């Protein structure tokens, strides 16, 4: 650990390797190493990994302000070298802060750093011209700040590398991005919800019927309001998306969130919507709604991630991924859902709920007829009313005698 850095607490320190789903234009799989202290993110390292696992390109290393100069960056980079023990690593060009940090860092695998080896050994994975440009920038910053930068380990440090890099640039073998095909398979998308307390208590109560709790969750969300998110090939990856959002939230919520994973299929008769495929997930790029068949639901509380509730829908339920904007909604979507994604009427093929006492409709109608007939009969047999009521009797009114002088009236 570089001098002057305080140590990290051993209790509650953990590392998490997960997917990194950001469109950077690089057709390699995105991976992220996250350092956690308790439930606080101390820092993260974002990289791209070649499909064969033998080359890694560092994209960004970031440490949160409260954890700087405590060895977090070194821990993350050491972890990367351990996770990919035989891969070439391209650390790229460094910023001002990165230059100072690298000067104090001790690379555990300098022999796998492409900056330290001739391009003949790694040129099939990285563009030799781009690597030479990054090395020139790093050397310039070292000179500007008067740093050594481990120059004794760098291949041809400070020399002009244009010709050699140009000679090996033709060896570079770009790969075509191999993405997930969403057709004919289950897809899993996550949402993070803050439910009303009563709903939260009900859906996480394991003594209640899972099917009823799942139906309540879908009704709460809306059948036409499934999330616009990355749709994964596995349920585990979808739960990781929800947990990732939980970790990188801006503020600590007052109540635990519910991590909800929808399992869907695209209707086989519908054309595939436009999408961007990643190795393990797809991002539907079209702004319109997407009709899906909801096959299952899984959910867990952020406060109890070890307890997962599941329920399957047999047969699958008609649902839809919400349109990006209300004006993007298709005519079929508007006929079925309102702008909030809730159903306007029962689904086609499903009987509408019968009104109360529907099985006694004939009896009630017959009783009403009898009552109306009896009322009419009484009206016919009643004597006619006299139009001029008798005058009121004119009996003398009794008045109280006046009070005796000197005596008051009794008040009761």
Automatic annotation (TrEMBL):
Residues 372-412 are annotated as: Disordered. Signal peptide: none annotated. SUPFAM superfamilies: Acyl-CoA N-acyltransferases (Nat). Keywords: Transferase. Residues 386-405 have a biased composition (Pro residues). It comes from the Bacteria. GO terms for molecular function: acyltransferase activity, transferring groups other than amino-acyl groups. Residues 1-127 form the N-acetyltransferase domain. The keyword Transferase applies. Pfam families: Acetyltransf_1. This is GNAT family N-acetyltransferase. It comes from Streptomyces alfalfae.
């Amino acid at each position: 650990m570089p001098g002057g850095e305080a140590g990290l607490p051993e209790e509650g320190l953990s590392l998490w390797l997960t997917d990194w789903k950001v469109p950077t234009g690089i057709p390699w799989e995105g991976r992220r190493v996250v350092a956690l202290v308790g439930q606080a993110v101390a820092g993260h390292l974002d990289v791209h990994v070649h499909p064969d696992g033998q080359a890694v390109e560092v994209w960004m290393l970031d440490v949160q302000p409260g954890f700087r100069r405590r060895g977090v960056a070194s821990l993350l980079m050491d972890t990367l070298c351990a996770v990919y023990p035989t891969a070439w690593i391209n650390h790229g060009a460094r910023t001002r802060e990165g230059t100072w940090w690298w000067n104090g860092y001790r690379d555990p695998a300098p022999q796998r750093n492409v900056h330290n080896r001739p391009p003949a050994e790694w040129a099939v994975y990285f563009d030799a011209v781009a690597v030479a440009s990054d090395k020139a920038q790093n050397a310039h910053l070292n000179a500007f700040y008067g740093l050594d930068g481990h120059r004794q380990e760098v291949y041809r440090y400070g020399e002009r590398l244009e010709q050699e890099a140009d000679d090996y640039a033709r060896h570079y073998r770009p790969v075509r991005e191999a993405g997930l095909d969403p057709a004919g398979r289950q897809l899993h998308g996550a949402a993070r919800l803050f439910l009303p307390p009563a709903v939260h208590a009900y859906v996480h109560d394991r003594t209640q019927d899972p099917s009823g709790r799942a139906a309540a969750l879908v009704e709460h969300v809306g059948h036409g309001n499934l999330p616009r998110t990355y749709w994964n090939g596995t349920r585990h990856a979808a739960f990781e998306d929800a947990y990732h959002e939980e970790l990188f939230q801006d503020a600590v919520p007052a109540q635990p969130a519910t991590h909800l994973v929808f399992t869907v299929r695209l209707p086989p008769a519908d054309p595939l919507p436009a999408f961007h495929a990643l190795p393990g997930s797809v991002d539907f790029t079209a702004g319109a709604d997407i009709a899906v068949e909801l096959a299952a639901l899984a959910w867990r509380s952020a406060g109890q991630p070890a307890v997962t509730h599941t329920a399957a829908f047999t047969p699958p339920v008609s649902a839809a991924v919400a349109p990006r904007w209300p004006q993007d909604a298709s005519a079929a979507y508007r006929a079925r859902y309102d702008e909030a994604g809730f159903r306007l009427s029962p689904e086609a093929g499903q009987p509408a709920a019968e009104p109360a006492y529907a099985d006694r409709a004939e009896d009630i109608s017959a009783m009403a007829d009898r009552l109306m007939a009896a009322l009419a009969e009484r009206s016919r047999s009643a004597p006619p009313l006299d139009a001029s009521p008798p005058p009121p009797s004119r009996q003398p009114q009794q008045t109280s005698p006046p009070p005796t002088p000197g005596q008051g009236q009794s008040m009761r």
